């Protein structure tokens, strides 16, 4: 055995010397680095110590050689991909070499992973034999079997063989250098845009055209103002900017129009040179930047200019932007900057840099009617559309599938125009991706531009998303967990940042660059990928990722596929995938037969890192699941309510690499064996576990799961369930503690060691209501459950103390919480409820009836929600305050009339069931929603400010005020006699008010003196059960002409007046 081990180590030494030559595609550049680092830092310590005496070199020198090789590896890493693009004749063998490289790296990773698995297994075994806990830092060495050593040697030899393929690549390198340079030059010019329209007409964007031209011609006192056209690739941003240039050129409105195509390479010098080139014929690129900017200043100092910056990507280098814009501030008053970008972050940055008037025009997907104009313009070019009725019908189907993309309409229209026959059009319409990528490369080239400008780490994360269906809603946290499991988020040994934090940075960058969009879903915060971007993901992941739906006719699934999603009915189509690493299985409801989906043993591949099963059936896993020694992520979900039974064998507790285990609705009786109580604690790498409350209560000894990031913990009286189980879990980010009443004394509470959990972000502490408490003991216990200062979210529920915990009221070294929620703290009454919390943004207090007074609110507070609180009055609100919700505060009598005086950002005001509240404070013009229900008010408040004194950004031309109000809801206010106040102020306009609801105000007599006709944007008006309403003067317009929905009932004389004018009780227009 010793001689065999020696041969393996010699092979590793050989690899250390040849690693400098190993090159792979950019997509797995960092993976190679990690593998090399693991060989250096992991492999040697695991091998038997007796072998070291036989080594011709020591581990330290081997590690140094490997580390020296890494920079040279990085330098050559992307050349293979470049060669494939530049020299098409080489693409096949380069693709083969890249696949062989990937397989070699995968094999090396697997061997190292098995070594680590063996160590973890031995560690758990030793821990159980010792009857206690064993740190993961112990047991650095383990007994290595001959099989693993054979695999290790084979993996290293395979890496050497792949590296030998570099000779052929290097032969091409010098020969292709000039081609690459030419290609780069060609690529730059190909994507460069100009100020001249390339389209015959700008179709389908009339509103946007009018807004841009209106902004360009609008007088301004600002020296320079800006407007950004923001939208996804292919929506027509550049075309709109070109149109604007043409219009301004024809009108002579500006002295000079300068067009600069910025693209991804942001350079102050380069852009300044292009601006000068646009102003004069001579070039001066060899001069210093200072001289260039002086020349620019001289050219524009007495001119009103329009600068158009097309395709801007830079959203971070604020100092560079400041330097670029500096000369433009000296242009003639009224100069303007129009720019196009895919990223809102660019618009925000440029707005803050210019720091004067700024507007943003978000460019949305086109409607089918507008898009049809563009599509028809190209699809029926040179023919009479009336002669092709059959094709027009198919064309309408195509337009609906293009999902609002003008560039797709143009390219697909041109494609179809080349074959004016029904079979071809129908084939294109029925095509899975709609777009024939071989013949319509323009679409993908435009959309791929964003992708190819991503770092390699982000590219692979985005490609992975192609296994999910179009319009799939992604949960950010779950997606990041999947990325981690697949190995996309690689940490160098020197990195302290959590992989979750790295993943979040990845996701946020992809979101910022429009690879994801926020979804307005009732599920909470979700994200989707734009349809055409999803097509990009599928295109660039071909051969690496695949999705097989039910009844899919796909026959050839490449053996190179690493990540797959498959319907259960097609699962045998992936049985040949030896290297699969991610498997997502969807199940369907069965009308007959068993309701269990049983995972076939022939698709259980040892290489799997991720296994997710979800759908409409219960699930049964085979006992062979423990063969998945590399598995990091196991999730089983059932979509609909009912009996959720997941039959999980006890062998899952041998998956020592597991980081995520989720079976949220599993039934305790059938799903888990008796080993459940302690078996889960074998999973020492577990970071997330999600089960039903029934199961979470049974898990014993969680102190062993030291890698946990989130935990729901039920405090018990028995050993293994007491609060001191939390003492070792110092990496927790989110902690929920139930049954806190089971903590016996303050000393036990201190043993939870919460203060030392420096990574803790959110904390929930809950007491149940079903027993009496020793108030003094309870107060001392919560004092000793002190969280770290960096805590961001704190919720306390059911607490029975009379005072707040000491650590919440001290002003020295206060908590950095941004959210504080107090629920059902029935006896809490001593002041202050909290001290200085300088970062607090959200404060929610619910069913705390003995709280009579709030302290001064922090300057950072944006949201306050009060329900069932014993407050008599409220303090003034800070400048950044945005939302106030008050409900069932029956003692509340007073809110200061100037409570909102400094609130320039208040958007939502909702006050309900506060019958003693007789007046409301004056309102800021920023308010969007005004809702009152069952109050004692007799009059409505007025707006703050006047024609001579108003809130700056809401003042419109001519000294009038512009309200931001959209909705008004007034109900069950029996003392209210008139809809006066802010609704009938003469100097206020309501351009956004679209909904008014008035109901059950039994003493309401007067509506606004100008009735509702002055609210020109009003589309929805409801008035009900207000029997004393008086009629209005005949000359007044009762309702605006564009009203879409009107409902009135039991409205006294007003109802008679409405009927006399031919207005029906219930009217709805579409």
Topology:
Layout: H1 2-18, H2 29-46, H3 59-76, H4 79-86, H5 91-130, H6 146-164, H7 166-191, H8 206-217, E1 224-230, H9 237-251, E2 256-263, H10 268-279, H11 289-300, E3 305-312, H12 318-325, E4 335-341, H13 344-354, E5 358-362, H14 368-379, H15 389-401, H16 406-417, H17 422-430, H18 441-452, H19 456-464, H20 476-486, H21 499-512, E6 517-521, E7 524-528, H22 531-540, E8 545-548, E9 563-567, E10 582-587, E11 596-598, E12 610-615, E13 618-620, E14 633-638, E15 646-647, E16 660-663, H23 668-671, H24 676-679, E17 688-691, H25 693-696, E18 710-714, E19 734-738, H26 746-750, E20 762-766, H27 775-784, E21 793-797, H28 806-809, E22 819-823, E23 842-848, E24 863-869, E25 883-887, E26 908-914, E27 929-935, E28 961-962, E29 967-971, E30 988-989, E31 995-999, E32 1020-1024, E33 1045-1049, H29 1052-1060, E34 1066-1068
Parallel strand pairs: 1-4, 1-5, 2-3, 3-4, 8-9, 9-10, 10-12, 11-13, 12-14, 13-15, 14-16, 16-17, 18-19, 19-20, 20-21, 21-22, 22-23, 23-24, 24-25, 25-26, 26-27, 27-29, 28-30, 29-31, 31-32, 32-33
Antiparallel strand pairs: 6-7, 33-34
Helix pairs in contact: 1-3, 1-6, 2-3, 2-5, 4-5, 4-7, 5-6, 8-9, 10-11, 10-12, 12-13, 14-15, 14-16, 15-17, 18-22, 20-21
């Amino acid at each position: 055995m010793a001689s065999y081990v020696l041969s393996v180590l010699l092979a590793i030494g050989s690899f250390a010397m040849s690693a400098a030559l190993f090159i792979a595609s950019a997509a797995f550049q960092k993976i190679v680095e990690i593998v090399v680092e693991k060989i250096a830092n992991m492999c040697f310590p695991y091998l038997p110590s007796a072998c070291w005496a036989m080594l011709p070199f020591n581990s330290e020198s081997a590690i140094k050689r490997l580390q020296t090789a890494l920079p040279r590896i990085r330098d050559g890493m992307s050349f293979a991909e470049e060669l494939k693009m530049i020299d098409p004749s080489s693409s096949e063998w380069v693709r083969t070499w890249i696949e062989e490289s990937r397989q070699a790296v995968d094999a090396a990773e697997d061997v190292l992973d098995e070594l680590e698995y063996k160590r973890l297994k031995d560690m758990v075994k030793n821990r159980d034999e010792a009857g206690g806990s064993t740190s993961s830092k112990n047991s650095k060495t383990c007994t290595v079997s001959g099989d693993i050593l054979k695999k290790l040697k084979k993996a290293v030899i395979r890496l050497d063989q792949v590296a030998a393929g570099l000779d052929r690549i290097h032969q091409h390198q010098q020969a292709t250098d000039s081609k690459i340079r030419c290609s780069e030059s060609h690529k730059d010019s190909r994507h460069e845009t100009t100020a001249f329209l390339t389209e015959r007409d700008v179709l389908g964007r009339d509103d946007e055209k009018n807004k841009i031209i209106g902004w360009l011609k609008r007088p301004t006192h600002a020296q320079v103002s800006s407007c950004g056209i923001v939208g996804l690739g292919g929506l027509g941003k550049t075309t709109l900017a070109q149109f604007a240039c043409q219009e301004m050129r024809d009108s002579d409105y500006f002295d000079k129009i300068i067009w600069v195509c910025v693209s991804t390479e942001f350079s102050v010098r380069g852009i300044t040179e292009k601006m000068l080139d646009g102003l004069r014929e001579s070039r001066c690129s060899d001069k210093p930047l200072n001289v260039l900017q002086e020349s620019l200043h001289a050219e524009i100092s007495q001119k009103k200019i329009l600068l158009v910056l097309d395709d801007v990507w830079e959203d971070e280098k604020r100092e560079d932007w400041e330097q670029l814009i500096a000369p433009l501030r000296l242009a003639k008053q009224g100069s303007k900057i129009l720019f196009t970008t895919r990223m809102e972050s660019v618009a925000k940055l440029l707005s803050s840099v210019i720091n004067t008037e700024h507007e943003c025009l978000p460019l949305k997907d086109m409607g089918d009617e507008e898009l049809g104009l563009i599509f028809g313009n190209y699809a029926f070019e040179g023919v009479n559309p009336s002669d092709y009725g059959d094709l027009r019908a198919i064309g309408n189907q195509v337009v609906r599938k293009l999902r609002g993309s003008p560039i797709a309409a143009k390219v697909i229209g041109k494609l179809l125009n080349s074959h004016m026959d029904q079979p071809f059009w129908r084939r294109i319409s029925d095509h899975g991706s709609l777009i024939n990528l071989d013949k319509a490369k323009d679409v993908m080239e435009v959309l791929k531009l964003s992708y190819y400008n991503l770092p390699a780490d982000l590219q692979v994360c985005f490609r992975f998303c192609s296994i999910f269906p179009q319009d799939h809603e992604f949960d950010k946290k779950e997606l990041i967990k999947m990325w981690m499991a697949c190995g996309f988020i690689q940490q160098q040994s020197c990195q302290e940042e959590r992989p979750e934090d790295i993943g979040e940075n990845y996701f946020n960058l992809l979101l910022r660059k429009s690879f994801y969009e926020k979804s307005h879903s009732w599920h909470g915060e979700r994200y989707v990928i734009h349809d055409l971007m999803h097509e990009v993901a599928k295109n660039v992941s071909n051969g690496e990722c695949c999705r097989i739906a039910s009844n899919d006719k796909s026959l050839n699934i490449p053996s190179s596929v690493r990540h797959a999603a498959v319907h259960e009915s097609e699962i045998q189509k992936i049985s040949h995938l030896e290297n699969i690493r991610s498997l997502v299985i969807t199940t369907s409801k069965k009308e007959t037969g068993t309701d269990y989906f049983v995972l076939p043993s022939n698709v259980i591949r040892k290489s799997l890192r991720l296994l997710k099963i979800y759908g409409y059936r219960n699930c049964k896993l085979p006992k062979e699941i423990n063969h998945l020694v590399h598995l990091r992520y196991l999730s089983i979900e059932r979509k609909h309510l009912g009996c959720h039974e997941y039959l999980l064998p006890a062998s899952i507790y041998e998956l020592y690499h597991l980081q995520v285990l989720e079976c949220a609705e599993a039934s305790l009786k059938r799903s888990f064996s008796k080993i459940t109580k302690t078996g889960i604690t074998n999973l020492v790498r577990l970071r997330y576990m999600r089960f039903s409350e029934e199961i979470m209560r049974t898990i014993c000894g969680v102190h062993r799961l030291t890698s946990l990031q989130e935990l729901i913990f039920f405090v018990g009286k028995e050993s293994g369930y007491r609060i001191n189980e939390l003492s070792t879990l110092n990496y927790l980010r989110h902690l929920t503690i139930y049954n806190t009443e089971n903590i016996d004394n303050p000393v036990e509470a201190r043993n939870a060691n919460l203060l030392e959990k420096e990574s803790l972000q959110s904390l929930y502490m809950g007491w149940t209501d079903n027993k009496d408490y020793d108030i003094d003991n309870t107060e001392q216990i919560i004092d000793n459950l002190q969280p770290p200062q960096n805590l961001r979210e704190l919720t306390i529920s059911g607490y029975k103390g009379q005072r707040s915990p000491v650590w919440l009221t001290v002003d020295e070294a206060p908590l950095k919480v941004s959210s504080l929620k107090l629920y059902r703290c029935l006896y809490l009454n001593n002041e202050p409820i909290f001290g200085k919390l300088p970062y607090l943004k959200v404060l929610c207090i619910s069913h705390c009836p003995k709280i009579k007074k709030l302290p001064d609110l922090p300057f950072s507070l944006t949201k306050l929600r009060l329900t069932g609180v014993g407050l008599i009055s409220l303090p003034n609100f800070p400048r950044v305050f945005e939302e106030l919700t008050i409900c069932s505060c029956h003692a509340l009598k007073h809110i200061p009339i100037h409570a909102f005086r400094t609130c320039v950002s208040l958007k939502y005001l909702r006050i309900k069931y506060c019958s003693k509240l007789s007046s409301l404070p004056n309102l800021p013009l920023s308010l969007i929603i005004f809702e009152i229900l069952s109050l004692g008010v007799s009059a409505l408040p007025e707006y703050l400010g006047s024609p001579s004194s108003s809130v700056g950004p809401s003042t419109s031309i001519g000294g009038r005020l512009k309200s931001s109000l959209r909705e008004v809801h007034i109900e069950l206010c029996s003392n209210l006699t008139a809809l006066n106040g802010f609704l009938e102020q003469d100097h206020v306009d309501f351009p956004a008010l679209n909904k008014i609801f008035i109901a059950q105000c039994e003493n309401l007599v007067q509506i606004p003196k100008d009735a509702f006709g002055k609210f020109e944007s009003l589309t929805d008006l409801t008035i009900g059960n207000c029997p004393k309403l008086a009629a209005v003067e005949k000359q007044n317009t009762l309702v605006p002409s564009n009203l879409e929905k009107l409902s009135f009932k039991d409205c006294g004389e007003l109802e008679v007046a409405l009927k006399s004018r031919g207005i029906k009780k219930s009217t709805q227009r579409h």
